[in-house]
Amino acid sequence: MVKNRFKNIRILLIIISLPGLLFMQGSLIVADAQTIDILIKGGHVIDPKNNIDEQMDIAITDGKISQVAKDIAVKNAKRVADVSGMFVTPGLIDMHVHAFHGTNPDSYIADGWDALPPDGFTFRAGVTTVVDAGSAGWRNFRAFKKQTIDRSQTRILAFLNIVGVGMLGRFEEQNVNDMNPEQAAYMVTRLFPDILVGIKSAHYWGADFTQVDQAVRAGTIAKVPVMVDLGEHHPPLSIEELFMKHLRPGDIWTHTYANAPKDREVPVDENGKVKPFIFDAQKRGIIFDVGHGGGAFHFAQAVPSIKQGFVADVISSDLHIGSMNGGMKDMTNLLSKFMAMGLTIQDVILRSTWNPAKVINRPELGNLSVGTVADVAVFSLRKGDFGFTDVRAKKLKGTQKLEAELTLRAGRVVWDLNGVASQNWDAKP
Q1: 67-90 b/e with 16+ CB inside 10 Å = b?
Q2: What helix, strand, coil percent values describe the chain, rounded to 5?
Q3: Are β-strands 412-416 and 395-409 bridged in parallel, bridged antiparallel, or unpaired?
Q4: Could you tell me which CATH class the domain 92-371 is placed in?
């Protein structure tokens, strides 16, 4: 009897100590425990992966999406963000940036001033993940990881440059002897598979596809896609040959809407028509990336392309010091620019969330599935008279513009423009 009595007391003490339970007047009752860390309520959710395009609430617990549903009870949330009238999306993925910021005076982008530390440019535009586009090669990637990737709140993934020193300078990028497919593939598959998502080929002056072919060889060994910036050849190399003979389905051509015919062949011909093989390449599985940048986006290519049905698969910024204050500005401005050219908000969110996640083989990103890391962006859609510029200061007018109101990275508020997730200063605790 004594043993049973002590056993019952221990059981009772355990029950009383359970979260969310109260013991009152000899009765066990369930309390309304606040099980949600933050509730994003009343917004129009656009989640292309899960085919959601309607008003829904999103509950976040322990840094992850715990529920996506209509009318989630406020009483269960510790913190509520009322985003009625706004759009809620997965955190944006900017698939083309240059983030290997440093102070090497002899460098172009690898550990140089032209690259940017991402945190100051991402969250305020709804971006939670960036992919560095080949700033570093296998020789200096460890330095990039140590001084930028490991120190940033923004999730940074990367394409590894096929040139060992990366984008140290235009001359160094021509060094065929520094293009090592085996070493690059080893870095991707054995050393940093969680960060490196592909191989980059860029800025090659040679009169052939040597650099592209070396990058594709590395990509084939490592089973990852290759991103190609094909330009600066005189005369320009054939992009039809590039798409049909050198690249594989799933490989990426960046700077899709650049208009520099002396350096590279362009999709739209002199009569304003998209060349037929462009559509064939897209059907074949070649991925077209915007990569706006400071010199690689022109309305003269983009507007006729979109009107004729050739739309890039991925919208990206090519963030660096030459683009941040120019025609690109940031991802919200860039998405708004494409809406001014005829795309819907659903179109641009697809191309900046789920599409890039698929391209880089990271299906856990770019969506709001229950159980995933809570990377979330909230946008207001302003109506008015707006102007959008390309890299040559040519203007296109628009009537709507996205503005990032709230950004969460791993369930933590990292940008709150108007305090929608904040409590009034004089509210009672």
Answers
A1: bbeeebeeeebeebbebeebbbbb
A2: 25, 30, 45
A3: antiparallel
A4: alpha beta
Q: Taking the complete model, does pTM exceed 0.90, yes or no? A: yes
The count of other CB atoms within 10 Å of the CB of residue 120 is 10
3-state secondary structure at position 141: helix
Residues whose CB falls within 8 Å of the CB of residue 382, separated by 6 or more in sequence, listed in order:
400, 401, 402, 403
Q: Residue 319: CB partners within 8 Å, gap ≥ 6?
A: 94, 96, 97, 98, 99, 116, 118, 121, 130, 328
pLDDT in tens, 381-419: 999 999 999 999 999 999 999 999 999 999 999 999 999
Token pair, residue 171, equals: 């001359």
CA–CA separation, 225 vs 361, rounded Å?
Answer: 9
d(CA 154, CA 130): 7
Condensed to tens digits (0 to 9), the pLDDT of residues 23-44 reads: 333 333 333 457 999 999 999 9
Which residue has 């983030």 as its token pair? 99
DSSP category for residue 247: P
Cα 191 from chain centre: 23
Q: How far is CA 210 from CA 182, 203, 205, 249, in A?
A: 15, 12, 10, 19
